[in-house]
Amino acid sequence: MKTNLANIYGSPGTRVRFTGLFKIFFPLILIIFLIGLLVGNLTGQIMPPKMYAIVILILVFFGLLMYDVAAKSFGAFLKGARGEEIVARELSMLSKDWHVFHGIPTSGVMGTLGGTDFDHILVGPAGIIIIETKNWTGDISIEGGSINLNGVLPSRSPLAQIRKQANQLSQILNQNVEPTTPLYMIIAFASNSFKSEMAQIDDITICNARKLREYIMSLPKYEISSIQKQQLLIEHLAKLSE
User: Fold this and answer.
1) pTM
2) Cβ-proximal residues to 156 (8 Å cutoff; 6+ apart), any chain
């Protein structure tokens, strides 16, 4: 059924959840595999039986330790996935002339296994928009041209992250985009805890999720010289989001 709302492709947060689950279960699978190898070699008497028992206990200990560390980080992956879903809900309320893509691999290769992805890519009247979602909690501020969390620089700069992704996206879409098509970069805070609500650092917009639609709808429209070219772009992104 046709609606007056945005066209949606892909599912937000899918790759983040998959990566989190993989990091939890990989140590456990590895330990089970190694124990299986040891048990399989018991009849070969490569080591005394007591030594096998000691090695198995050591493997189990380090496996559980690795699993505990992975389990603690899993919460961060889930939080990130929830953030993408919050932003996705905002984007879904855009008008029907917008096409919204979630979870497209940065490598340009289809599939969910491994790698990173673009949180959200939009194609519409203003051109192309790439959105990096952060679900941070705490005091988010801008100081000296950088984004700080609780007065400290994050281990990974979201500014550098989205610039890198913009370059990756340009390479992926090189054959499907008109040279004059504007490309906007946005860092969106799903927690809506950015006190300034909206700010600009060079050519990157930083805003809370609740301000996304307002900002996007305020962008100037650009003249599309080839409707067919834009349709090819949309079809190409749609295939990558499958």
Assistant:
1) 0.77
2) none
